[in-house]
């Protein structure tokens, strides 16, 4: 049985316009206040994946992607990822740095190099590692020790040059991550 494409949460940044049954999020003005969340928690071992559909606007920076422990229903919507780098409740990749709790870890790839038509994803593996993917290719662990005993919502900040993303995560058939399931990861 085919699952349904995951939608973005009804609570989002003020500069976001949702369309196509809430599976497309577009920043309609400025360069920030364009945060979106998955409508439901993403299960451990499953990917939160989006496709970049549009870039431009003369700004600097690009999409930021990660997870949060905070239910969007119960939390204020942040202006952008920059406000969350010191939070213990968020793991966010911005450019080539993962931010969490005031700490930073560099990774060997850069989200600012993602082009229109490419997919980016993040996943918490069954051993608590946060992995990032570009077009289905595992870019490695960006963080370790992510708690697995609480729900995690996918988080994206459609920032700077990024203008529009489309959900590619499918509930009931979410793609898995981890060393034992590389064959299941597709772009």
Describe the structure.
With 187 residues, the protein is mostly beta strands. The chain has no helices and 15 strands. The two termini are 21 Å apart. Residues 179-187 have low confidence and may be disordered.
Topology, pairings included?
Blueprint lengths: L3 E2 L10 E4 L4 E4 L7 E7 L5 E9 L8 E5 L21 E5 L2 E4 L2 E4 L12 E6 L5 E5 L2 E7 L9 E5 L4 E6 L2 E2 L16
Antiparallel strand pairs: 1-15, 2-3, 3-14, 4-13, 5-10, 5-14, 6-7, 6-13, 7-8, 8-9, 10-11, 11-12
| Shape, per Cα inertia axes | globular
Which band does the percent of strand residues land in? 35-45%
Largest sheet: 7 strands, antiparallel
- The helix/strand series, from N terminus to C terminus, equals EEEEEEEEEEEEEEE
Helix content: under 10%
Mean pLDDT: 89
Ends distance = 21 Å
Radius of gyration (CA) equals 15 Å
Looking across the biggest beta sheet, what order are the strands in?
Answer: 2-3-14-5-10-11-12
**Poorly predicted runs of 5 or more residues:** 179-187
Query: How many individual β-strands?
Result: 15
Structural class: mainly beta
**How many DSSP H or I helices?**
0
């Amino acid at each position: 049985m085919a699952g349904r494409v995951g939608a973005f949460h009804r609570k989002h940044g003020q500069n976001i316009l949702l369309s196509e049954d809430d599976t497309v999020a577009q920043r309609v003005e400025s360069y920030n206040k364009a945060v979106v969340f998955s409508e439901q928690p993403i299960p451990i071992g499953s990917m939160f994946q989006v496709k970049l559909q549009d870039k431009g606007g003369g700004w600097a920076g690009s999409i930021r992607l990660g997870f949060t422990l905070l239910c969007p229903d119960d939390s204020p919507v942040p202006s952008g990822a920059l406000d969350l780098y010191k939070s213990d409740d968020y793991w966010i990749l911005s450019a080539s740095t993962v931010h969490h709790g005031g700490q930073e870890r560099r990774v060997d790839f850069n989200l600012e190099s993602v082009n229109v038509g490419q997919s980016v994803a993040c996943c918490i593996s069954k051993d608590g590692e946060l992995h990032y993917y570009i077009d289905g290719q595992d870019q490695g662990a960006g963080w370790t020790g992510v708690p697995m005993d609480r729900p995690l919502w996918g988080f994206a900040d459609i920032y700077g040059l990024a203008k529009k993303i489309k959900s590619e995560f499918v509930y009931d058939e979410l793609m898995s991550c981890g060393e034992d399931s590389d064959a299941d990861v597709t772009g």
